[in-house]
Amino acid sequence: MTTATPVPRKTPRPRADALRNRERIVSAAREMLVEYGLYVPLDEIARRAGVGNATLYRNFPDRDALVREVVCSVMDRTVRAAEQALADGGDAFEALEYFVHACADERISALCPMISSTFDKHHPDLEAARERVELLVEELMDRAKASGLLRTDIGVGDVMVAVAQLSRPPAGAPWFSVDRFVHRHLQLFLDGLRAPAPSVLPGTTVTMEDLRRA
């Protein structure tokens, strides 16, 4: 008597409608986290996404899981923006400009502080996304420096601090109010990064490790 060899079962792929629901939840969560902050009610996020509470919790069992997914999705889009800037192969400084403005559109100044305030900032998904972003930004900056278009006394941390600070709204103002002037002020900052440098910067070059230790 022979024993039949069990056939491995394939893990079923999520249905298209299930994937769409997940994407709608993440999109709605991103909008509402920017507008209302970290503790926006989850049922309000479900309502904006057009799904039931059960669907939200089936995809994200708790707030930490949802916020982490939102931050990772934003970082993934930031990675794609940096990759696009590098792939275009044009003016190296314009590539950096493209990336900086794309970061502002992703509202990273509103979302990234949530990493340290709600869940494990050393989660493998976050670590991998952050490392990828940092490497790509460093590559963009190195290329602009090598071309003689970017001043040499700045680091990745300098750029990311400026993006975060300049894309925040004034105190007490709603997040959407920043849209009127954020890209204008970012361009003023970027113009100050062009070589040759008109002045000597106080302090030292800021790295991402400096920011993590701050």
Structural features, described:
With 214 residues, this protein is mainly α. The protein has two domains: 15-61, Arc Repressor Mutant, subunit A; 64-213, Tetracycline Repressor, domain 2, CATH 1.10.357.10. Helix content is 63%, strand content 0%. The chain starts with 15 loop residues before the first helix and ends with a helix.
Q: What is the CATH top level name of the largest domain?
A: Mainly Alpha
CATH architecture of the largest domain: Orthogonal Bundle
What is the count of helical runs? 11
| Radius of gyration from CA coordinates | 21 Å
Structural class: mainly alpha
List how many beta strands DSSP finds.
0
Give the low-confidence spans.
none
Question: What's the helical proportion of residues?
Answer: 55-70%
Total of domains: 2
Main beta sheet: none
If you average the pLDDT, what whole number results? 84
Q: Quick one: overall form?
A: elongated
Compressed to H and E, one letter per element, the order equals HHHHHHHHHHH
Which fold name is given in CATH as the topology of the largest domain?
Tetracycline Repressor, domain 2
> What is the percentage of strand-forming residues?
under 5%
Spatial gap, N to C terminus: 70 Å
Name given to the CATH homologous superfamily of the largest domain? Tetracycline Repressor, domain 2
Pfam families: TetR_C_43, TetR_N
DNA-binding region: 41-60
GO molecular function, one term: transcription cis-regulatory region binding
Domain HTH tetR-type: 19-78
